[in-house]
Amino acid sequence: MNHFMVFTVVIPMLTAMVCLLFGRDNLAIKRGVGLAGVLATLGAALYMFGVAFDGAMVVYSMGGWQAPFGIVFVLDRLSGSMVLLTNVLALFAYLYAINGSDKGPYFHFLFLMQITGVNGAFLTGDMFNLFVFFEIMLLTAYVLAIYGSGAERVKYGTRYVFLNMIGSAIFLIAVGVLYGVTGTLNMADMAVKAAAVGSQDAMLLRSGSYLLVTVFAIKAALFPLYFWLPGTYSVAAAPVAAIFAIMTKVGVYAILRSTTLIWGADAGFVTGLVVPYLLPLALVTLALGVVGALAATRLRALIAYLIIASVGTILTGIGLYTADGISGALFYMAHSTLISAGMFLIADLVREQRGAAFGDRLDHGPAVRQPVLIGMLFFIGAIVMAGLPPVTGFIGKVLILEAAIDSSWTMWLWSVFLAASFFTLMAVSRAGTVLFWKSQGEPSEDAPDVGLRLIPIAGVFSCVLAMTIFAGPIVAFTDATAAQLLDKTQYITAVLGGAR
User: Fold this and answer.
1) Does residue 141 contact residue 237 with C-beta atoms inside 8 Å?
2) Are residues 358 and 267 in the same domain?
3) Same domain, 241 and 328
4) How far is 467 from 447, CA to CA, in rounded Å?
5) Binning pLDDT at 50, 70 and 90, where does residue 27 land?
6) Pick from 54, 102, 104: which is nearest to 80 by CA?
7) Which residue range(s) make up the domain with 131?
8) How far apart are CA 112 and CA 10, in angstroms?
9) What's the CA dihedral at 189, 265, 480, 40 to 10 degrees?
10) Residues paired with 59 in a beta bridge
11) Alpha helices of 54-150 — where are they, by DSSP H?
12) Residue 485, Cβ density class (10 Å: 0-12 exposed, 13-18 middle, ≥19 buried)
């Protein structure tokens, strides 16, 4: 009955293989096949979200092997909503790509395999399987990061590959240590076994756990392990940068899942393992992300630094370790993922229409060919990204600020959030002024029009608008998701007692 659980992994994987069969040619066919796969995967994600919406927790055992011995997929409110967010974003990025950005014979294969890895990472209930899906996600990301060649892409892509290879090695060591101590790789079983570890193995348990959270911090771009992100994201092709907006959220998801399940309440020697460190590190990440945005010399770099700032914002809410804080973080995560992707697409339009000499550099250069249309798109995106009322960014921040009222970090959190919001507004205002109000020279005659690429950007803005209009029901859902996360007994019972 639960075979639908694998659809969001199997469909993009099989579609990727079909695209690979067409080799270097038949671009139109690959676009059609790829779009069909993306739409089918989104349909499966919508169905799964509907199943999990009311709080149902569904467990699928691969090959009929029951947990903790077999590999399981676990669908709950968190994993269901993250898979849906991934595939909504994938649709917009792919629609943009097939309008001229999908150059190269293997783009479609790589893009679809990227979706496969991300979806699998959100659904798996097995720590080693999480490593496998991380590797699928990262191997495709390595190639996509430098896709289209160019010295800058090779430079930053090499740095990205090197750091993540180190992260993968640490991941394997951490999983090995935790398996040696607990005797299991299943997350639910690991939560049970970790709580029962004796004092003689406590140091090993904590060491393996700290190594694991370090890996997740690299993926999430948490300070001080965020330096790989600005260069990599700012030089990637637009649809690649857009789909990369979900990549950091995989790391955030892993931190949230493991700290509430394995290192949460009643976890023995690893109870509250990262509680003393996560919130201050998140605030530093937020502050430095905004500083980087202020100092950015290119629009895409500015957006990349604001992704880092958004990671800091999300992890601040999670770092409060209250239902209200996690709920606000989940709301803000959906907002920041969508608007960051949309802004990367807008930045690509600016780069094209200003010409190769200036691109998206924040210098006084030629005007874009369609200043009213692109200027309005940028203006809307900047408002949303800066979190001005009444849009989603503002709502998400207010939810986190309200959750922090009774925290010992209240003064620091409010101060950093308010300052960060002000300076974010300054950063995007400066960029808009330079690009659209202080342009010099005539637009390039060879610059392409926006054309059909307006559709995915409008799709992103429509999702943000819908989140604003239906903020009440969405917050009710994130409240329920946070409550489900903090009740780890339900997850453990479903996986170990209800797998089928």
Assistant:
1) no
2) no
3) no
4) 34
5) confident
6) 54
7) 1-273+487-500
8) 10
9) -30
10) 74
11) 77-96, 107-123, 127-145
12) buried
